[in-house]
Design brief:
Elements: H1 5-28, E1 57-61, H2 65-69, H3 74-91, E2 99-106, H4 113-130, H5 132-135, E3 139-144, E4 151-157
Parallel strand pairs: 2-3
Antiparallel strand pairs: 1-4, 2-4
């Protein structure tokens, strides 16, 4: 037996009333205002050491990634990065060693992470080109180093 027309309309009326109640309930629920996000600084976890490599050497150089991107400052900033890396490694007695893997972290704004990645990768390519004995055959990658304007390195040397 088929339900009558009134029963079908009653079913739709109940469904419409339930939908209306749900919408009214959602519209009246309090919404917390969004607060400004806190500055992002990635946390560095313990890095596993690949077989055949020493523990990574980590250091920061006092060259701003924004200077590397500046048309007027980029050539001087590239030389400053190269000098700072050479000095840091010489200070640690690593001048004659060969790097196996290099991670370069360029900090920058959260709304333009791609530019920071490109800058870090350009620094790595510059090291490979200008210091082929140490970095020429090294693998590596550029990473976003969080908010700010600094340049950090993590270099794995062959043992």
């Amino acid at each position: 037996m088929r339900p009558g027309r009134g029963a079908i309309l009653a079913g739709w009326l109940v469904a419409d009333l339930v939908l209306a109640l749900v919408l009214v309930g959602l519209a009246n629920s309090p919404v917390e205002p969004a607060s400004a996000p806190a500055p992002v600084k990635p946390s560095v976890s313990a890095t596993p050491v690949p077989p055949g490599m020493d523990k990574p050497v980590e250091f920061r150089v006092a060259v701003k990634p924004s200077d590397l991107r500046s048309p007027r400052r980029s050539a001087a900033a590239e030389r400053e990065v190269l000098t700072a890396v050479r000095n840091e490694l010489a200070k640690r007695g690593l001048s004659g060693k060969r790097a196996g893997f290099v991670e370069v972290f360029a900090a920058g704004p959260t709304d333009d992470i791609r530019t920071s990645l490109d800058t870090a990768e350009a620094v790595l390519r510059n090291l490979q080109r200008r210091e082929p004995a140490m970095f020429g055959k090294a693998s590596g990658d550029g990473y976003w180093g969080g908010t700010g304007d600094d340049l950090n390195f993590k270099i794995f040397f062959y043992n």
